[in-house]
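In this supplementary section we document a worked example of the pipeline. Step one takes a protein sequence of length 236 as its only input; no multiple sequence alignment statistics are reported here. Step two produces a three-dimensional model, which step three serialises into structure tokens for compact storage. The input and output of this example are shown verbatim.
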Amino acid sequence: MHTLQDVRNEGAAPGLRERKKQATRAALAEAAVRLAAEHGAENVTVEAISEAAGVSPRTFFNYFDSHDDAFVMIDRGIGERVRRAVREAPASVTALDAVREALATELADVVEEQREIWDLRAAVLQRSPHLLVRGMGAHMTEELELAEAIAERLGAPAFRTAEGERVSRRPGPCAHVPDTSALGLYPRLLAAVGTTAVRVAVEHWCAQGPEATFPDIFRRAFALLAAGLPEPPADG
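The serialised model returned by step three reads:
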């Protein structure tokens, strides 16, 4: 019988080349956020970010599609690895546990190691509404793609059109809403709740003292979800 430890162990560790790519991307994102926190995102150029990270501007665009993406720290690689882990988790593992372990594997070290950068990023986004909107859009895209992975795991058919676009079939106020009817409610809800649990866990961890650890708070959040969100005791 597969265990949750099997889920973690079955994922191959990234090779040296992939680790170098991840390190370069992280260095660029950190440089962008630090410069934006000091000078304002609108005053920071790709050249300045690249110089601070010790790479060329050409290299910058190997990791980010645009100048703004570096500030919102959109890492498609993380989302892709999470979705792959969800799809490939043993059948004996529930979808909720598969999502939890996939997210925990990606976040366990990153969050605590980058606490200062996450705080700076939040300040940068608050001062730049257009970046905040961009970040929210990226988050919604990642959430929907996670829902697709969950639906695939549960045997639901794909719902993309031949052109790879999501299209609403409903007129009126629903016209702008993606048509996700083929996914079903459960995958959409699990993806939304799971990603929200990550955000809330990060925020709660940031508000705690130094004795708090993110993995503990993260797992407490998912334990509450698995238990159906029971109300805490009145004195808790």
